């Protein structure tokens, strides 16, 4: 009884994680500018990944659940820090170029700039 409930919970968490990750991809594609894309990519993808990792409870295997918990804690600690560092670097780049940081779409690389 409990085993089938845990398996159903695991499947539900996997479906939730996939749905959140799909919305993340849509948000990154749809939004303009670095800062909104960074918001969508960092916050939502972290939640989707943690939902998928939480699905390990369906395995009822202690070591697997412990490893998933360690990875989830690592994501919770490092994703916001990485997003902050990337946003800070983009802000400094915009400031050095004389652009206002809040200008939407201004932080994107021009197509001819890489040549």
Question: Whole-number average pLDDT?
Answer: 84
How would you describe the shape? elongated
Portion in strands: under 5%
What structural class do the secondary elements suggest?
A: mainly alpha
C-alpha-based Rg, rounded? 19 Å
Number of domains: 1
Number of strands: 0
Helix amount = over 70%
Distance between the ends? 62 Å
Order of helices and strands: HHH
In short:
The protein is mainly alpha-helical.
What is the topology?
Elements: H1 2-30, H2 34-54, H3 62-97
Helix pairs in contact: 1-2, 2-3
Description:
With 115 residues, the protein is mainly alpha-helical. It has one domain. Helix content is 75%, strand content 0%. It is built from 3 helices and no strands. Helix 1 (2-30) runs antiparallel to helix 2 (34-54) and helix 2 (34-54) runs antiparallel to helix 3 (62-97). It is elongated. The termini are far apart.
Please tag this protein with its features.
mainly alpha, single chain, 115 residues
């Amino acid at each position: 009884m409990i085993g089938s409930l845990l398996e159903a919970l695991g499947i539900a968490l996997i479906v939730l994680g996939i749905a959140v990750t799909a919305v993340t991809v849509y948000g990154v594609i749809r939004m303009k500018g670095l800062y909104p894309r960074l918001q969508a990519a960092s916050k939502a993808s972290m939640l989707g990944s943690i939902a998928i990792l939480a699905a390990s409870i369906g395995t009822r295997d202690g070591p697997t659940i412990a490893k998933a918990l360690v990875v989830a804690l690592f994501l919770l600690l490092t994703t916001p820090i990485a997003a902050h560092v990337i946003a800070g670097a983009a802000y400094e780049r915009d400031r050095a170029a004389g652009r206002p940081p809040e200008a939407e779409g201004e932080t994107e690389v021009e197509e001819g700039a890489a040549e």
